[in-house]
Amino acid sequence: MPKVLVISAHRLNRSPSQRYRYEQYIDFLKTKGFEFTFSYLLGEKSDSVFYTKGFSLVKGFILFNSLLIRIKDWMRFNQFDIIFIQREALFIGSSFFEKRAAKSKAKFIFDFDDSIWIMDTSPGNKKWEWLKNPNKTKQNIANAHLVIAGNNYLAEFAKQYNKNVILIPTTVDCNFHLPKPELRNKETLVIGWSGSISTIKHFELIIPVLKKLREKYQNKISFKVLGDSTYVNEELQIKGRAWSVIDEVNEINSFDIGIMPLPDDEWAKGKCALKGLTFMACGVPTLMSAVGVNKEIISNNENGFLATTEEEWIDCLSKLIDSKELRSKIGEVGRKTVLEKYSVEVNKEKYLSAFKS
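Structure (tokenized):
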């Protein structure tokens, strides 16, 4: 029975990146004979403060404890057949443990789903930015026996440093993310966004559009932010809601329209459209920025909408607001797209092949 050590930042069912990259495949891989051991840096208590401003002493302890955890992992590397590292082994700018994994008896698989070779520090940790070194991503890619990238843009970057690169998109479990249309189409139409405290800046890109829509439609529409409970916009009457795995599907299904605004920059080109895919899987008509992999997923006006300019955002959202039939049609075709291309079911053999190789 092949033994796999999974090295990540967060505990199971906490990080969207982990959940939608590999955690959804664990049970399937276990049925194929793989045995998993998980090593993470952030527990339930430390997770709650790590991305929040302040708590410098606590964060210092977390970093020190992280180093101890990885040293213990290093001491047992040779007990495993595969060492699977998602994004990075440590929060700081060292590739020490990735190099040790590559030199061990195990095969080292490196998985990533963002342009993590570019500096992008969460707002709560800007003062710790000097400890980071995004360039270590190139070293981690070069040291891996196999690299799994989340989209074509990331795969092409990785191929500059490693010839053994495969693409497995970020995927959705369509048996979990099920449409619940009964939660939509109330008196007030909801335009929703999901993310986190580190990506709320992307939601704020669309605020001017939402203000104009509020002027146009008044109380016919409302707005919901899921994932950053600290976010408040009094003018648009938005109070952010905390994310939880228990409530996620119901919250998304409360959206009549899902939006995924992004800047057109190098970081955004590495995004794997997770937010949009979860909306689509739930049958929620989705509008995304015409950036990166979004343009591969969406066929405009067929399974969703793409927009670049403010005028395009207003036009697309207005069409969806004005037509329940259009929302229903786009939502149905959007879910079909996820089922056929971006579901766990159609991608699970790719992960099995990767682990077997």
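Residues 56-75 form the longest helix (20 residues). The mean pLDDT is 91.
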